[in-house]
Design a protein that fits this description.
The structure is a homodimer. Chain A is about 40% helix and about 15% strand. Chain A is of the alpha/beta class and about 450 residues long.
Chain lengths: ~450, ~450
């Protein structure tokens, strides 16, 4: 099809939307390492995991075999409310950069949660409802995941209890209020409602909390209350499975116009968006059917891929969760007050960690001021005000497009625009006022946390 | 086509998007009354208007003859970045209400301005650029129009000076920051930068401003600075013309599935969204080709259609603008602190005023608490967190759907969902905390302002 026939936005028809999720683990030669029991260091059984997670989600978590898993009709119907998301040809950005590169982005921000998080939230809420549970607990940092889960729980009439990192709870009252619209209860973490919360408050008076700490609280409440389970918005295998809908739609849209990307770029915190976006492309790569350059972009302030260790570590501060083998900075690592809240996690998806370790993808970092410069440049020509997280991918996509300008190569670049920045205006204000924090941890600092990784047998 | 074939979201293809705006005035037997010179009370000439507005926009303002006006290619291209907007079948809301009615909404919130305002902003910026102007001035209340204009000016590299009603400037710092992302300068109004601002500040020390006052300041700056013109986001004929893209897309989407609406509902402040949504349907009605029930919904706190006078009045507090014949509460009327900021204007579009006076449409009011209850009910089943303005239409759409439930009628209801409420969380918080203001002005209060309407010859 001729170049000029490609519309600004490629939308799939409703009947072209994915009916199955793609499980990249089925095609991986080296499977991701299993979750381990933190006491025995033995692989977690389905029964053990069932105390924390919903039954069917446990099956999905452990499933390294099935290449495709049916998306239940109820979830497909919910997806139809806000999906398919558009694959946008960034004609205006290309024009502005004067690059021969062709730039596309998959925009996941057109729903009230403001991000891709809803793709997994609705799946996790569905299975909780199916199991007859009363409700679910979770943690949230910047608030996108908490908002998404609130929306999903409201839809299925499930109770939703969110532990929100205290500094975000105080700095982002509007996010909290959106969750309230959807009927969720939101508690600042660390709270005095859990044992681990009381302990952390006692040890660190006045602490403003962290994701790892909020996870511990949410897990504790789920385990202690009958009819409740814990759900998580990133890192886990099941989350990457649900998020494969992003990549499947992207690939279907590209295939419609016979477009083959050269480079695929995504921001990476816990890995949910990146893992979802790249999954079918990585599948082709694993099966030897095609090759792509795949780039993960993480903040220089929280560089788990690029400067972390590939090792078993705790997923939370309270050390109540299973051990996961992943690229990690150490579960005690507290990133600086980087405003890309969704990228401040100390670890990385075990699936992506294995793929990265096997040399199947690259990783790079970006400093915050550069990220916001790219964000503003993008907003002014493409209209959309991007989330700080997504803007890490924008920054590297622009860099790659400018390289093409130098070399004259007409590469096709696809990146994930995971969400909007409407609730991040404090960060934009700091950027405009020249008060942005560009802290990069020193080698000594990282070594200190790495030394505290759990000793394995 | 069978009922079950209708998708959740009807998207037009890019080549099905409107290439012309529809000018409803061409089909009106009784044309809207002309704008008058406030000094002479004679109809404003194109030359007089040209001192305030861009040349081509003046032509559009005065054009009562041409049924269709070409959308310039540059504007069509910009529209492609965020349009077509989806026409959504509210399956989930219908299910929740257990109504036989079929409910559709045209969703205009999927762009960074968060509303339909961008449709006219980009047109006005385009004509300003084409005329070789340096920049434009405007006012904004809630901030949606200011944001839209900032985006449009950034795209065409035009200077953009926004006077923001002081109380909004202080209460909505995030809106201000979004405008800053797009390079606009934002001044709280009344300011000390204009003669009228100084006068109002002197007469009303500590005033938090009003739309009428911000308009006066913006007009003053446009008139006094060479290379600048004033632009406005509602009320004017040209704005309704640009906004006809909403209705044209809606009609094209409905026609694709052979759907004929019975009732069309929109919120009404100055009339930009309602006028745009209904335009092609009203055209059919005026030409005797079809009949529709058309309902305008205004806040009980600012009831220009339902309790105002149809008379010539000033559009601004400073009385520097032309006189317009419209349903009005009087240019001194300051609505209570109703959070549906975009519906707080004292007057109403002259086109809609004439159509309403001719009995071609109905109007009703809603009180704020009811509006937020409808908003929350909608958000929980349809996902989208609506703007308070749009929620007036939701409220009446739900009421009509519930009437169908009683009578068993399978009516088709279409309403305009003009935007999202992401920057209105303070209002949602007040609603949740039971602190919502449901003030309704008394007859005595309205009579006091009506008595001050300008005396015409």
């Amino acid at each position: 099809m001729a170049e000029n026939k490609i519309p600004y936005k490629i939308y799939l028809e409703e009947n072209e939307m994915p009916k199955k999720w793609y499980n990249v683990r089925a095609d991986m030669k080296n499977k991701p390492a299993p979750l381990l029991n933190p006491g025995t260091h033995e692989p977690m059984t389905a029964q053990e995991l069932g105390g924390v997670f919903c039954e069917e989600l446990v099956q999905q978590e452990l499933d390294n075999e099935n290449q495709y898993i049916d998306i239940p009709q109820e979830i497909q119907d919910f997806y139809k409310m806000y999906r398919p998301s558009p694959l946008v040809r960034a004609y205006c950005l290309e024009e502005k950069l004067q690059t021969p590169a062709k730039i596309y982005y998959k925009f996941e921000g057109n729903n009230t949660s403001g991000s891709h998080k809803l793709n997994s939230a609705i799946a996790q809420a569905y299975y909780a409802k199916k199991q007859g549970l009363k409700g679910v607990t979770t943690e949230t940092g910047a608030g996108q995941w908490g908002t998404a889960l609130s929306m999903a729980c409201s839809y299925f009439d499930l109770d939703c209890k969110v532990f929100m990192v205290k500094c975000s709870y105080e700095q982002k009252p509007f996010r909290r209020e959106v969750m309230r619209v959807y009927g969720a209860s939101v508690t600042p973490s660390p709270s005095m409602e859990t044992e681990i919360g009381k302990k952390i408050n006692a040890e660190h008076p006045g602490t403003t909390g962290s994701l790892g700490c909020a996870i511990s609280e949410a897990v504790e409440v789920a385990v202690k209350n009958p009819g409740y389970r814990y759900v998580l918005g990133s890192v886990l295998n099941q989350v990457l499975l649900h998020q494969s809908v992003i990549g499947l739609e992207t690939k279907a849209a590209l295939d419609k116009y016979n477009i083959k990307p050269d480079i695929i770029i995504g921001c990476a915190g816990g890995g949910s968006n990146l893992g979802g976006l790249i999954s079918p492309f990585m599948g082709e790569k694993l099966r030897g059917e095609a090759d792509y350059r795949i780039i993960a972009v993480e903040p220089a302030s929280c560089p788990s891929f690029t400067r972390g260790k590939y090792a078993y570590d705790f997923c939370d501060t309270g050390m109540v969760c299973p051990l996961a083998k992943m690229y990690t900075l150490g579960s005690d690592f507290i990133p600086s007050a980087n405003h890309a809240g969704g990228l401040r996690y100390h670890g990385m998806s075990p699936v992506l960690s294995q793929l990265y370790d096997d040399g199947l993808m690259e990783a790079t970092t970006a400093i915050q001021t550069d990220v916001f410069e790219a964000a503003e440049q993008f907003a002014r020509v493409e209209g959309i005000l991007p989330a700080p997280e997504s803007s890490h991918a924008i920054k590297v996509a622009i860099d790659e497009a400018l390289k093409c300008k130098e070399t004259g190569e007409e590469k096709t670049i696809v990146f994930g625009l995971t969400g909007t920045g409407y609730f991040d205006m404090v960060a934009y204000e700091k950027f405009h006022d020249g008060k942005m924090d560009d802290y990069i941890p020193s080698d000594e600092e990282l070594a200190k946390y790495a030394a505290k990784l759990p000793k394995m047998d």
